[in-house]
């Protein structure tokens, strides 16, 4: 583990937390230049990388780190500002595996149990992910490549887990004579911003104009508004945080606002957005389960639902409600997920009629939406 942050307070606290949690901290750095020098010396599994640092900031250091060590798991740290949210999401596209919203003041960092818990959880998850890529491949299974070929795009993605043991699950039988979907529902968390964007782009604007797209991505406030802007740029469709009592219309993308649950209700002229400030569900607010359970009531079988990469099990209970209503649920596979928590939970519960790599999910969803064969 390597921590790069220009605040001595942050470096000291994070170093202590990591040690108390039983992980090894190999070094700390006050800027990106020093971090690169230490990476070359220690080859850490995980790097916690602050965005704003002197001499060489995190945004500039990130691609150099990935070029030096393609499988290193880089987690960006930034305070909750619109500018930093935008930079963090761009860093995910460049190859960072996740981000952490950092309290603005040193006192906030010191007293925030949430920040500490999120940081340690990411160290645990991504440290394990890097360790798997270091293991020798089982006989007969080729190892994941250490780096992309020269002709590949520059963006770094989590290494395909060819050596990962397959997790057993049972697919749900496909529904015959299925109802044409009137809504596309998406639940995601860790690794989700990149996955959602790629999948929607793969589905294509022509199919997405046929129905509303409702997304719960686990994100803090400010980040969700910027995430929606990124999706609008990528798809060419209007995308924004959902607003209370807003009518849900085809061809628009609605993102659950950070810090609020987004659900649905029946309005006088069609389904409307419902926002609430209730307690976290599955430790999350917004929670995927809230949207999915409401959608099962409002849309019934007329849904197309997908669970993408993310920690935890949020979305499983909602997926069960949707399948009981007759709607199809798809899940991202383990190899292309940054973390196979949420989709894995749905798959192991027998609620997914297909568990597919990210590119194939786009094809399958386009077929569901248009009613044409994939």
Automatic annotation (TrEMBL):
GO BP terms, alphabetized: chemotaxis
EC no. given is: 3.1.1.61, 3.5.1.44
Q: Where is the composition biased (Low complexity)?
A: 136-166
- PTM 4-aspartylphosphate: list the residues: 50
Ranges where the CheB-type methylesterase domain occurs: 177-372
**Which compartment or compartments is the protein found in?**
Cytoplasm
Q: How is it modified after translation?
A: Phosphorylated by CheA. Phosphorylation of the N-terminal regulatory domain activates the methylesterase activity.
Q: Which SUPFAM superfamilies match?
A: CheY-like (SSF52172), Methylesterase CheB, C-terminal domain (SSF52738)
- InterPro entries found in the cross-reference section: CheB-like, CheB_C, CheY-like_superfamily, Sig_transdc_resp-reg_Me-estase, Sig_transdc_resp-reg_receiver
The first-level EC class reads: hydrolase
Would you tell me the Gene Ontology cellular component terms? cytoplasm
Q: Which GO terms label this protein's molecular function in UniProt?
A: phosphorelay response regulator activity; protein-glutamate methylesterase activity; protein-glutamine glutaminase activity
SMART domains xref list:
REC
Q: Which domain of life is it from?
A: Bacteria
- Which reactions does this protein catalyse? [protein]-L-glutamate 5-O-methyl ester + H2O = L-glutamyl-[protein] + methanol + H(+); L-glutaminyl-[protein] + H2O = L-glutamyl-[protein] + NH4(+)
Arranged from A to Z, the UniProt key words for this protein are: Chemotaxis, Cytoplasm, Hydrolase, Phosphoprotein
Active site, UniProt feature: 189, 218, 314
The similarity comment for this entry is: Belongs to the CheB family.
Report the domain remarks.
Contains a C-terminal catalytic domain, and an N-terminal region which modulates catalytic activity.
Q: What NCBIfam families does this protein's entry cite?
A: PRK00742.1 (NF001965)
Q: What is this protein called?
A: Protein-glutamate methylesterase/protein-glutamine glutaminase
**What taxonomic ancestry is recorded?**
Bacteria, Pseudomonadati, Pseudomonadota, Alphaproteobacteria, Hyphomicrobiales
């Amino acid at each position: 583990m390597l921590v790069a942050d220009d605040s001595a307070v942050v470096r000291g606290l994070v170093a202590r937390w990591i040690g108390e949690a039983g992980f090894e901290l190999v070094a700390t750095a006050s800027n990106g230049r020093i971090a690169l020098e230490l990476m070359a010396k220690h080859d850490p599994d995980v790097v916690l990388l602050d965005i704003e640092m002197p001499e060489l900031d995190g945004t500039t250091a990130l691609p150099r780190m990935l070029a030096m060590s393609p499988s290193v798991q880089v987690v960006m740290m930034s305070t909750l500002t619109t500018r930093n949210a935008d930079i963090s999401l761009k860093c995910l596209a460049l190859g960072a595996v996740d981000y952490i919203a950092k309290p603005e003041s040193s006192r906030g960092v010191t007293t925030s149990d949430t920040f500490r818990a999120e940081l340690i959880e990411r160290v645990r998850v991504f440290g394990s992910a890097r360790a798997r890529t270091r293991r020798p491949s089982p006989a007969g299974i080729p190892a994941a490549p250490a780096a992309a070929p020269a002709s590949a795009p520059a963006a770094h993605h989590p290494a395909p887990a060819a050596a990962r043991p397959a997790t057993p699950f049972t697919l749900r039988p496909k529904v015959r004579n299925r109802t044409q979907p009137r809504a596309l529902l998406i639940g995601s968390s860790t690794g989700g911003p990149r996955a959602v964007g790629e999948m929607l782009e793969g589905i294509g604007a022509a199919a997405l104009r046929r129905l509303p797209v409702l997304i719960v991505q686990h994100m803090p406030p400010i980040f969700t508004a910027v995430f929606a802007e990124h999706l609008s740029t990528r798809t060419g469709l209007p995308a924004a945080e959902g607003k209370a009592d807003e009518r849900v219309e085809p061809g628009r993308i609605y993102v659950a606002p950070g810090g609020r649950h987004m659900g649905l209700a029946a309005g006088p002229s069609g389904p409307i957005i419902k926002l609430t400030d209730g307690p976290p569900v599955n430790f999350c607010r917004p929670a995927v389960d809230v949207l999915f359970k409401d959608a099962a009531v409002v849309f019934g079988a007329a849904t197309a639902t997908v669970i993408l990469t993310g920690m935890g099990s949020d979305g499983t209970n909602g997926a069960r409600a949707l399948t009981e209503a007759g709607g199809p649920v798809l899940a991202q596979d383990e190899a292309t997920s940054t973390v196979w928590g949420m989709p894995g939970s749905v798959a192991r519960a027998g609620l997914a009629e297909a568990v597919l790599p990210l590119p194939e999910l786009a094809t399958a969803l386009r077929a569901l939406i248009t009613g044409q064969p994939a």
